[in-house]
Each structure stands twice: as C-alpha cells, then as structure tokens.
Amino acid sequence: MPHSLRWAGGFVRPHRSRLAVCVALSLAGTGVGLAQPWLTKRIVDDGLAAGDARLLVVLTLGMLGAGLVSTLLSGANRLVYTRASAGVLFAMREHVYAHLQTLPPRFYARWSAGDVLGRLDGDLAEVQRFAVDAPLSALNALLTLAGAVALMLLIDPALTLIAFLVLPAQALFLRGTRPWVERSTRALRDSMAALTGFFVQRLSAMKLIQSLGAERQEAERLAALDRDCLRRLLRQQTVGIVTGGVPGLLGSAGTAAVFLWGGLRVIDGELSLGALIAFSAYLGRAAGPVQGLLGLIVGAQRARVSLDRLGELLSESPAVRPPARPLSPTGRGGALSVESLVFGHEAGAPVLDGLSLTIPAGAKVGLHGPSGVGKSTLTDLLHRHYDPERGRIALDGVDLRDLDPALLRRRVAVLGQDAPLLPGTIADNLRFGLSPAEAGALDKDTLTEAVAAAQLDGWIAGLPRGLDTPVGAWASALSGGQRQRIALARCLLRKPDLLILDEPVSALDPAAAERLTADVDRLFAGRTRLVISHRAEALAGCDAVYRLERGRLEPVADTMAEVACASR
Ligand SMILES: Nc1ncnc2c1ncn2[C@@H]1O[C@H](COP(=O)(O)OP(=O)(O)OP(=O)(O)O)[C@@H](O)[C@H]1O
C-alpha cells in the first residue's frame, strides 16, 4: 500500500498548486458559509427583536452578498478542482496504457479485455477519487467542523456538549457498518465488471454467436448478469439507506435535544432565540463533515482494493527491453540470420529448440509445418515481441537485442493472415504507424500509387469517398482480401527491408492467392522475404523452403510435392 500510494501521489504532485488554490477557495467558501448563521442570529436578535429596521436592511444585504460570494467561490473551486482531478485521472490512465503497450502477445492471450478495461476504468477512478478527493474532502471537513464547533462553543458551551453527545454513537455506528458497506460495494463492482466483460467479448464475437445460433442463450446470460447486478445494486442501496438513515436519526435526536434544552432556556430568558437558531444551523453544518470523515475510511479501503488490482496489471513485465545504447545497422539489405534459437512460452517446454536459419539479403525463403509447431512464435521473435532464451537473431549482422525496437519494426514488416484495421478512413489506415512528419509528407499521389500497386485502385475508385472512405469500427464491411491488400499497401509505404508473410493467403481462393503472391513478388522484388504458409501458391518462387518440425528447420528438396503432401 505505501508503495502504491507513492505511485498515485506521483500523479497528484504536478497539480499541487491547483489543489492549493482549491484549498484556499474552500477556506474562503467555508468562512463565508459559516458567517451566514451568524448573520441570521444578528437579524433575529439585533434587527427583529430590537426593532432596528436600518440594521435589518444592512444585515439582509450582507446575507445576500455572502450568498453571492459563496456561489462564486464554489464555482471557481469546482472548475479548478475538475482541471486538477481530471488531470490526475488522465495522467494515471496514460501511464497504465503506456505500460500496456509494452506487454507481449502472451499477456493479451491471458488477460480478458473486460478485466483490463475494468481496471483502466473503475479502479483508476477509485484511486483518483481517493488520491485527489480524500485529502481535499478531509481538509474541508476538518475546517468546516472546527469553524462550526468554535462558533457553537462561542454561542453556548453547554449546548455544544449536548449536541456532540450523539457524535460518538454516530461514529461507532458508521465504523461498525464499514465492512458491510465495503462488501456490498465490492460485490456491485464485480458484477458491473462482469457486465463490461460480457459486452466486450460478445460484441467482438457477434458473428460467431449468430452463426452458432446462440442468440437466445447469450440473451439469457445477459439477463442473468443483469439480475445479479440488480440484486447487488439493491443490496448496496439498502446498506446506503441504513448507513445514511441511522446516523441521520441519531442526528435528529441530537437536534431535538438541543431544541428541547435550548428552547427551555430561551423560555427562561437564559438564551436568545437568534442564538438558538444560529446554533442549530452550525450543528447542521458540523454533522456533514463528521460523516464525511468517517466515509473517508471506507474510501481508503476501496482505494486499497483498486490499487492492488492496478498493481497486478503494472507488475506484468514487458518481455523485451530496449537497449541502453542501440547500435545502428551497417547495411540495409534485410539479411536475416537465426542461430541455434531456443524459445518456449512455458518454462522447460521449448517450442523452438535450436532453430537456425540464414536468409541472404534479397532472397525469398519459404517455411511450412504442422499447426501449432511454432511458426507464429518464430514471427513474434523476429519482430522482437520476445527475446530468445538461447541463441541469437541478427538483422544485417546486428543482434535484434541491440537494435532500437521501433527501428527494428520499421525495417521488418509482418503481413499476417488476419489484417486488422483500425477505425478511421482507408487513408488513415495506410498512414497508421508513421510519424506525423512522415504521414504529412505522404501526398495523395503516393497513397494512390501504393493502392494501385496493391491492386486496390479499381475497388477504391468505385467508392464515393475513395481513400477517405471510413472502414468502420471493426472493418467488417471489407472482405478479407480487401483488408489484406490495404495491409499490403501499408507495408509498401513503410518500405521494410525484411517482409514476413505469415499465412498471407489463407483466407483467399487459389486464384486470388496466386495473384497476391505474384503482386508481393513484384512489389518486393529484391527485398528479403520470409513466407510462412501451408499453401503451395504462397511458396511459389522461393529460393529455399524449410519445414519446421520439433523446433528445428529441415530443408525441403521438392517444395510443391512436400506442401501438397502436408496439406492432404
Ligand atoms: N501465449 C502463449 N502462451 C502459451 N503457449 C502458447 C502461446 N502462444 C502459442 N503457444 C503455444 O506454442 C505453440 C506454437 O504456437 P504457434 O502459434 O507459434 O504455432 P503455429 O505453428 O503458428 O500454429 P498455426 O499454424 O496453427 O497458426 C503451440 O503449442 C501453442 O499452443
């Protein structure tokens, strides 16, 4: 917890001056707020009871002025506070997102998107509330309480004692019900996270749900989650009603006692009516801060749970680290050399076990092998999503671990079987990943050229908005072939030295597969290519073909016969 609090504190620190302004505005607001009951007392006792009309006018105007100042102060406070509080939340979220961007595919295979989203959303907000709101609320509450108590003591010390007799009972009650509050809140948050997870998973698998006719089961599953959420929501509300109601009742008993004893003293002439009215107003103002302070303890416990959950996410370590002093490659031919590579996803179970491969600059090499043998794992290693456990991978003679990962991924492009696109236009997707300067330097002619080279020009010319056509949130309105060709045009614009084609034609029919292979060969002629495929069309024209088996590569003499045999 102390370490996590330090982590959260690091995001609050840059906003200290804004928060100090909030405290100053709160102080001023509290002062003005506390002056109002005092003015009421003077209006009743010195204006009304004494029949002083001039003083009555002055005090009433003072009351109006105090109301105006109080509104302005609280408005300004709210704006400054929102700026600081949102700044803290956004900075924390950006920090967690930056960490998520360093995590390997293995992390995304293990964690559900709903779970990560729940932590990015609910847990971060909980921590932000505690880190920013709690100190300010505590300070505000303490100041208001101290001011109210001081003024109550000034009006009547004995009455103050009577008023505060109920406070220990209220405090004890709230303390006792804390675990109940915490349990019900946690249960509700779990249930809401389950609902978020449901939508994240189901929306991306809607086609599957429809294809398998699982709509009814899924609707029932959602209804069950809703019922569970409603049950927990009602329980949390019941807890809220009780934990808010009982202290409220105790407070009313305290107020009744103040009015009874204070009223008797007013009747006896020992206390003025205005003093009793002002006293009761201060009593009302003191009750809120007390409950607020007790509520902060519950807030701290909730924040602790959220900090733990965020800590789990942040303790996931990146699989690779950028080198302290990256080396610059001497050549730019895209020659690849893999030496005695050993790597496994689980300790002691290597997927690649002593694999060696050399691809001279400009050569096209093919690779195939049974499903699950480690072909995609090899691609992930070549793109440095992981580092080898043993052995070495070098691009143009430089170990990948010595290259800046961003530069490596510019020089090595992967065209996979599913070419995911991001929301935006076709042009946005073509420019994706380029720096603003590079993207700005790409004029429409260059984009059109790349699109024509990828044989998308006919299709794009038929679209009313051409390259500015949005691809939609999931790009599901495009065919697999169209998505793949957009990805191919994107690869072209990045001008890689080494192109890895991981099952590039698996979604295409034989004729389209042949066309795509021929286009890639034409567009990337002279550049190094590694083609991973089960399909003979994709492996056509390779300088050498290897079979991946038991973690190593075996050269294949007759590619076509081998692949045809493997695919039977
Ligand atoms: N994130 C992961 N965590 C644990 N094991 C994994 C992970 N990714 C892959 N594996 C395992 O590593 C092995 C190689 O998987 P990989 O995806 O590289 O195979 P592949 O040859 O590309 O298969 P396919 O041709 O079916 O795509 C498989 O046994 C797979 O279950």
Structural key phrases:
single chain; about 575 residues; alpha/beta; ABC transporter transmembrane region fold; Rossmann fold; 2 domains; six-stranded mixed beta sheet; four-stranded antiparallel beta sheet; 21 helices; 10 strands; binds adenosine-5'-triphosphate; plasmid; ABC_transporter-like_CS; ATP-binding; transmembrane
Word description of this protein:
The protein folds into two domains: 2-314, ABC transporter type 1, transmembrane domain (ABC transporter transmembrane region fold, Up-down Bundle); 336-567, 3-Layer(aba) Sandwich (Rossmann fold), CATH 3.40.50. A hairpin with a 2-residue loop joins β4 and β5. The longest helix is centred in the middle third of the chain and has 53 residues, at 215-267. It contains 21 helices and ten strands. With 568 residues, it is of the alpha/beta class. The strands form two sheets. The chain has a six-stranded mixed β-sheet with strand order 6-7-8-3-9-10, sandwiched between helices. A four-stranded antiparallel β-sheet has the order 2-1-4-5, covered by helices on one side. The chain binds adenosine-5'-triphosphate.
- Strand order across the biggest sheet? 6-7-8-3-9-10
Instruction: Give helix % range.
Output: 55-70%
Number of helices: 21
Mean pLDDT: 85
SS content category: alpha/beta
Q: Cα-atom Rg, whole angstroms?
A: 35 Å
Name of the CATH class of the largest domain:
Mainly Alpha
- What is the fourth-level CATH superfamily of the largest domain? ABC transporter type 1, transmembrane domain
Find the CATH topology of the largest domain: ABC transporter transmembrane region fold
Question: pLDDT below 50 for ≥5 consecutive residues: which ranges?
Answer: 563-568
Query: What CATH architecture of the largest domain do you see?
Result: Up-down Bundle
Total beta strand runs:
10
Work out the count of structural domains. Answer: 2
Beta content comes to 5-15%
Largest sheet: 6 strands, mixed
Cofactors and ligands present? adenosine-5'-triphosphate
Q: State the end-to-end distance.
A: 59 Å
